Each structure stands twice: as C-alpha cells, then as structure tokens.
Amino acid sequence: MSKKATISVFGSKPKNAIVVPELPLAARNNCQSGKWTIGDKEYGSKLAMTILKFSKFFGSLGQTQNTLWGQLWFVAEAGDLPQNVVMVTYVKGRSLRDFNRLVASVQSRGIEPAEGIFIPEFAKHSGQKTDENGVLKPINYYSLEWDWVERDDWGMVEQAAAVLADPSNLSRMMDLDGTRQMICLDNLPPHEIASVMAAYANGLESNGELALPGDENDLARMPEAV
C-alpha cells in the first residue's frame, strides 16, 4: 500500500493551540450595523473573548480622524466570530471609555483582568448627523458596552501564555495596515503624548511624515499616508 502524499504550505493548527495568522485578522466592531465584520463578511453581534494584548494609539482609522484608540489582540472563546485564532480590533470613544472603566474596576479587586473573559455587547444610540446637503438628520449608531466574568476553564489562558512566549508570534501581532496613520502611545510620558496630539493638530510635513515638536527622535514617525 503506497504512502499518502502530504503537502505543507500554510501549516495546520496543533491540538490545543491558537493560530496566529501571518497577516493580521482584523475584526471590525461596526458602529453602523451593530455587528462584527472581517473584511466584507458580516458576522453576528455575540462575542466572548480572551485578550492577549492591549495598546494605546492616537491617529486616524477609516472615517475617524485624530482620536485616541485602544488596540485589542484577542481570541474569541464564544460567539459569532471564528474561534482559536488571534484577531485584532480597535475601540474608541464610548467603547474605549467603557472598556477602561471595566478594566479599572476589575483591577481594583486585585485581579488581573486578562485572566478573565471579556464580553462586549453592542448598545444602540440615537443622534444627529449633517448629510451632504447640510441638512441635520437623525441617525442610529452602536457602541460597545463591556462586561467581565471569571473563568472556570484555564485552558485558554495556558494557550494564550504559550502564544505570548513565542517571539515569532509576537512579531506577527503587528497591524501595520490598521495603524499606518497612527502613533503608539505605550510607555510614553504625558508630555510626549501631548506633543504627539499637538503634532497631529498641526498637520503633516510636506514629506508625509508627522511633524513632532521638540526633541522626539525616540518616537516612531508615521509612514506616508495612503
């Protein structure tokens, strides 16, 4: 009996492991539909996640210009998104403020929030927006409200720790496309964060790089805008 031929191009997920894609898998929390989307595919609104990494950014993404963002690298444990694969999403405004509230409240209990399960839910809001003719019209939009629960099964935490212990995985947890018009604020002192925000308010230099006031040689510059 002949041996079955095998082929290895992308590799497969080992048992009890998490996939870290070669290219970031961006899950958008769609504020217009109140559902999660990946690329052009729309998923549902239910999700429970383990968070592997959190970073603060300032800049522009999509139609939102010059604002504070929270970048979340996570794994879906339940809900409508693919499971056992690392994804990235971005939160701002109400969603980011409520996330910060929840993290602080869990920390105040002497608990590391990443050891538990985060549950974001889409909350509907009403507002007004000016259309292309300058007419003010009512609109509906969604933000994320966050909940957190302690876990019974620690298997996912062990898998997440294994992912974070591998340098090759960490090198893939960089979203160059999503952050091409942002600057990371992690570990920056307050005066440098203020400089970054002021630089964005002053616009870009003629060469397409961010104009940072003062001596900011240690800060990353923004790549040319697309």
Textual characterization of the structure:
The protein has 226 residues and is α+β, with helices and mostly antiparallel strands. 21% of the residues are buried. A four-stranded antiparallel sheet has the order 6-5-4-9.
Between the first and last Cα atoms, what is the distance in angstroms?
56 Å
**Tell me, what's the shape?**
globular
- Uncertain residue ranges: 205-226
> Percent helix among the residues?
10-25%
Structural class: alpha+beta
Biggest beta sheet summary: 4 strands, antiparallel
Summed over residues and divided by their number, the pLDDT gives a mean of: 85
Strand order in the largest sheet = 6-5-4-9
**Got a strand count?**
9
Strand residues, percent: 25-35%
What gyration radius follows from the Cα positions, in whole Å? 20 Å
- By DSSP (H or I, 4+ residues per run), the number of helices equals 4
Name the helix and strand elements from N-terminus to C-terminus, one letter apiece: EEEEEEHEEHHEH
Task: Offer a concise description of the structure.
The protein has four helices and nine strands. The chain has 226 residues and is of the alpha+beta class.
